[in-house]
Amino acid sequence: MADEEEVVLISYWASMFGARLKVALSEKQIPYKYIEEDLPYKTQFLLQMNPVFKKIPVLVHNGKPVNESLIALQYIDDVWKDKGASFMPSDPYLRSQARFWAYFIDLKIYHLAARVWRQKGNMEEQELDKKELIHSLKLLEQVLGDDPFFGGKTFGFLDIAFIGYSSWFSTYETYGKFSMESECPKLVSWVDRCMKRESVANSVHRSIDVLKYIRMIMRVYGPNKGIAKVIHTSKI
């Protein structure tokens, strides 16, 4: 690619979706400008780059926006295919499975976890959501199996898609009143392996830092409306 190309990432430090793009750009060793978005007060640049959903993260390549983090993740892999190994496996079926489980993570894990930690609904509903969340996380453990990464021996697309969520594990545990170590030990070990990679260590914030942030948000704004006002991230 040309030296004069410009890559910009609009995101927010606690966004698991933004984290996946930071990891991907780091894995490909692509220099980029990072813009921290002020979530409650969306900037004109964000609104210009994502006029449809008005949410982060947004990858801007030579002035052209790529919205939705999984789409942007695939874009990074396609555009900079000469920069290191592909995130995707070469086998078409395995590629389809990586895409399916990435979709599952954003469609299922994100929304279940959000209902648990945002404390919406009654206690009985929250308990059901927690059980379904744990069940969904255990399904991901089955996909991981005994391999070091979701890409087998290779850190790949699904690993990048999910690793940003690990920064929220303490929040899920605290508000859901369960232990990731007890319920999903394979996922916890997987996180430890991923965090040994420089790309991940420099891109994914500590889980305890996100928990402190959420506790502050809860104190200041309260659940429900306050959280909805402050947390604005892409869901797919």
Tell me what you see in this structure.
The chain has 236 residues and is an alpha+beta fold. The chain folds into 2 domains: 73 residues, 3-Layer(aba) Sandwich (Glutaredoxin); 139 residues, Glutathione S-transferase Yfyf (Class Pi), Chain A, domain 2. The protein is built from 12 helices and 4 strands. Strands 2-1-3-4 form a 4-stranded mixed beta sheet. A hairpin with a 2-residue loop joins strand 3 and strand 4. Helix 1 runs parallel beside helix 3. The chain starts with 6 loop residues before the first strand and ends in a 6-residue tail after the last helix. The C terminus is likely disordered.
Topology:
Blueprint: E1 7-11, H1 16-27, E2 33-36, H2 44-49, E3 58-61, E4 64-67, H3 69-79, H4 92-117, H5 123-144, H6 157-163, H7 169-176, H8 180-183, H9 185-194, H10 198-201, H11 207-221, H12 225-230
Parallel strand pairs: 1-2
Antiparallel strand pairs: 1-3, 3-4
Number of strands: 4
How would you describe the oligomerization state of the chains in this entry? single chain
Largest sheet: 4 strands, mixed
The structural domain count equals: 2
Name the descriptors:
disordered C terminus; single chain; Glutaredoxin; Glutathione S-transferase Yfyf (Class Pi), Chain A, domain 2
In short:
This protein has helices spanning 16-27, 44-49, 69-79, 92-117, 123-144, 157-163, 169-176, 180-183, 185-194, 198-201, 207-221, 225-230, and strands at residues 7-11, 33-36, 58-61, 64-67. By secondary structure, it is of the alpha+beta class.
